[in-house]
Amino acid sequence: MTVTPELMNATAATYRNGTLYVEDTPLAEIADAVGTPVYVYSSDMLKSQYAKLDSALGSLPHQLHYAVKANSTLAILKTFAELGAGFDIVSGGELSRVLAAGGNPESVVFSGVGKSVEEIDFALKTGIECFNVESNSELIRISERAEILGKVAPVALRINPNVDPKTHPYISTGLKENKFGISQETALALYQRADADQNLRVRGVACHIGSQISDSAPLFDALDQLLALVDQVAMHGIQLTDIDLGGGFGVTYENEAPFDVDAWGATVTERLAHRGLTVSVEPGRFLTANAGVLLSRVEYLKPANGTTTDGVDADEAGKNFAIMDAAMNDLLRPSLYQAWHGVLNVREQSSSQARTWDLVGPICESGDWLAKNRTLSLSEGDLLAILSTGAYGSSLSSNYNTRNRAAEVVVSGDRFRVVRRRESLQDQLSTEIL
Ligand code: LLP
Question: What one-character DSSP code corresponds to residue 68?
């Protein structure tokens, strides 16, 4: 068994009669029709994950802002827009995507440490809900741009609460050593400056301490610090109306217990009761990760003895490599974070022929791998599903080695729809001038 029962329970993929399905659609059918590599998403799972988080905050006045960076494909954004989601963006490009997908600009919060003048102007003209401001200089720039455009900019300060989210160092954002947010100590002075500025309307306080968080304790720690700040600024006559708790809710990739949103929601509800604050969250991974799989074919088997897969013991003779048609340009997480993704053969295999494989891509980098040391029974041409790839999969993809970006498909019951066609070489070359 290469995939844990916890992951089988969490992923949108299930075996029926020896073949892998997403909802009522066999994955082999999608690969035959669309080719590989291809990302496949379950529309049901996107909706059910949204519903879980929404109901966890049930009785509190709240708004979910889907973190666009996790998966910015228009059809995914449209799905969430139709469910009533707002959006958390980090660039003007993401704002354009939200608008193109029919999202409501009045439910958009703009995070990020490096908002350019052009991006600020675009957001002001569009009329977004709030800028989550990350520095004194940014606050000054937003005020200047608002004045020039004759607008009043809604702002919240993103606080860096200096708590350890206990996650991968690349995706921890709420420690002093991270570039994000404003320290507690300087926040009051900035609130006072913003409050006195007629170009700004102070709305709230925000934080985001990291991603793939499984333990709620650091989140509550951050929440308590934000509440203390709300009280502190209230004593100086500034009433905040919104509290943004960020995203970061962890999912099952291997055997992690899924983040207990109900328990988290109950504590948040208890701590925010009677405060009259509207609570916001910015989930990305929780909504999309396990709704997606990346389908890829085995191009070549390169077993340790160089010629055959028969009778080779990888430990004695070196590594067995399965060279896939997907690569680090399609799915960067393993290369960048040594992330572990479950892998299933779309045709269910008996384990009798299994051996240990490294699944690698065709890119000319030794760091181009998708999964290491997996016990699988493989033949050339086999179709594999790389699990939990609905978040930070397609959105982190690139054209490295001049590879076209993968196609993307949304499944709904026994139907599927190509929501992003495979990129063509013409698409890639069209921006260049000789
Ligand atoms: N809000 C802000 C301000 C963020 O920076 C992020 C993620 C989120 C919300 C959403 O976090 P989530 O709910 O998805 O954990 N590429 C990495 C993850 C980077 C996360 C960056 N910020 C990965 O593949 O694991």
Answer: G
Asked if 130 is an active-site residue, the reply is: no
CATH topology of domain 43-285: TIM Barrel (3.20.20)
What mean pLDDT, rounded, does the chain reach?
A: 94
Q: Which value, to the nearest 10 degrees, does the dihedral of the CA atoms of residues 88, 391, 259, 171 take?
A: -70
- Ligand 1 atom at shortest distance from the alpha carbon of 283: 13
- Distance from residue 303's CA to the centre of ligand 1 (Å): 37
Task: Given the residues 1, 235, 364, 433, select the one marked as catalytic.
Answer: 364
Mean pLDDT (whole number) for 145-158: 98
Q: Which two tokens stand for residue 293?
A: 């799989």
* Domain boundaries, given as residue ranges, for the chain: 5-42+289-425, 43-285
- In tens, the pLDDT along 337-368 reads 999 999 999 999 877 789 999 999 999 999 99
Q: How far is the CA of 276 from the centre of ligand 1 (A)?
A: 28
Which of these CATH numbers, 3.40.1190.20, 2.40.37.10, 2.60.120.680, 2.30.30.100, describes 5-42+289-425? 2.40.37.10
Residues 37-64 have pLDDT tens digits of 999 999 999 999 999 999 999 989 999 9
CA of 328 to the centre of ligand 1 (A): 19
Q: Tokens 């100590």 map to which residue?
A: 185
